[in-house]
């Protein structure tokens, strides 16, 4: 199976936010004088050209209508993972593996650890009103019931996933970034040993395993285009005839 072809869009990536129609990124910028700062950019999925956007626009894409309020509460917006809830609220997973549930008006509704067998969650994607999350240390993908506050379903084991990390949901497809090399997510593995494993929902049947030649942080399916965040670089996945 051939490896995907990548088109570099930007480097020094701090964060990527997307839904099924739009994708934007935050990158580290510098000026001749003064400290480094974050700049925000929206990428056109068709032309792959980027244009600057405001921080407020980026926060709206990542957290929803109450993005500014949620960002104020969190204090740090780049190390957390967010998933929009059907009621307009937002589930935010912190680097501490605590899940924070924000109401549509930006108020915090609940905060609790999200883990599987003492392994902290790495990323989340909402399936209906409940989050699915990866637990790399247990090679597991789990569905968490917010109503029961417990694991409702677990898929995993070393025969299914290897260090599952980044998650993205488009329609009835879930894209799970896995490190076949045995390195933790974010470390460099051998070429071709990292994959994006697709899964069909709600059946949880495994679909195509997409081979990579870079370690995956997160894979995105936006309208008719796919993108990859790897380490501190942001790529579009292209066909042979493009660019």
Description:
- By secondary structure, the chain is mainly beta.
- It has a single domain, classed as Neuraminidase.
- The chain is 7% helix and 49% strand.
- The chain contains 2 helices and 22 strands.
- The strands form 6 sheets. Strands 1-22-21-20 form a 4-stranded antiparallel beta sheet, with no helix packed on it. It has a 4-stranded antiparallel beta sheet with strand order 2-3-4-5, covered by helices on one side. It has a 4-stranded antiparallel beta sheet with strand order 6-7-8-9, with no helix packed on it.
- A hairpin with a 7-residue loop joins β3 and β4.
- α1 packs across α2.
- The longest helix is centred in the first third of the chain and has 9 residues.
- The protein is globular, with a radius of gyration of 17 Å.
- The protein starts with a strand and ends in a 5-residue tail after the last strand.
- About 5% of the residues have low confidence.
Question: TL;DR?
Answer:
The protein has 243 residues and is mostly beta strands. It has 2 helices and 22 strands. The protein has a single domain (5-238), classed as TolB, C-terminal domain (Neuraminidase).
What are its keywords?
single chain; 243 residues; mainly beta; Neuraminidase; four-stranded antiparallel beta sheet; 2 helices; globular
Ordered list of secondary-structure elements with their pairings:
Blueprint (H helix, E strand, L loop, with lengths): L4 E7 L1 E6 L4 E7 L7 E7 L6 E4 L1 H9 L3 H8 L6 E4 L5 E4 L4 E5 L5 E6 L1 E2 L2 E2 L3 E4 L2 E6 L4 E6 L4 E7 L10 E4 L2 E7 L14 E7 L4 E8 L5 E5 L2 E6 L2 E6 L5
Antiparallel strand pairs: 1-22, 2-3, 3-4, 4-5, 6-7, 7-8, 8-9, 10-11, 12-13, 13-14, 14-15, 16-17, 17-18, 18-19, 20-21, 21-22
Helix pairs in contact: 1-2
């Amino acid at each position: 199976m051939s490896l995907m072809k990548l088109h570099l869009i930007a480097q020094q990536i701090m964060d990527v936010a997307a839904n099924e129609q739009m994708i934007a990124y935050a990158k580290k910028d510098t000026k001749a004088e003064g400290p480094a700062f974050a700049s925000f950019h929206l990428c056109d999925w068709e032309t792959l050209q980027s244009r600057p956007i405001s921080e407020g626009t980026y926060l709206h894409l990542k957290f929803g209508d109450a993005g500014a309020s949620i960002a104020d509460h969190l204090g740090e917006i780049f190390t957390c993972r967010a998933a929009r809830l059907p009621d307009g609220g937002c589930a935010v997973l912190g680097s501490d593996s605590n899940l924070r549930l924000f109401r549509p008006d930006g108020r915090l509704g609940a905060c609790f650890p999200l883990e599987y067998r003492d392994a902290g969650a790495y990323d989340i994607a909402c399936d209906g009103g409940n989050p699915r999350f990866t637990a790399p240390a247990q090679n597991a993908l789990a569905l968490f019931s917010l109503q029961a506050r417990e694991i409702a379903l677990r898929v995993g084991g070393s025969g299914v996933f290897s260090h599952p990390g980044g998650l993205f949901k488009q329609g009835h497809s879930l894209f799970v970034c896995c490190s076949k090399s045995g390195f933790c997510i974010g470390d460099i593995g051998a070429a071709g040993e990292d994959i994006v494993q697709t899964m069909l929902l709600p059946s949880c049947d495994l679909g195509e395993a997409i081979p990579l030649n870079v370690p995956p942080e997160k894979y995105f399916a936006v309208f008719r285009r796919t993108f990859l965040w790897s380490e501190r670089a942001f790529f579009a996945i292209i066909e042979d005839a493009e660019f």
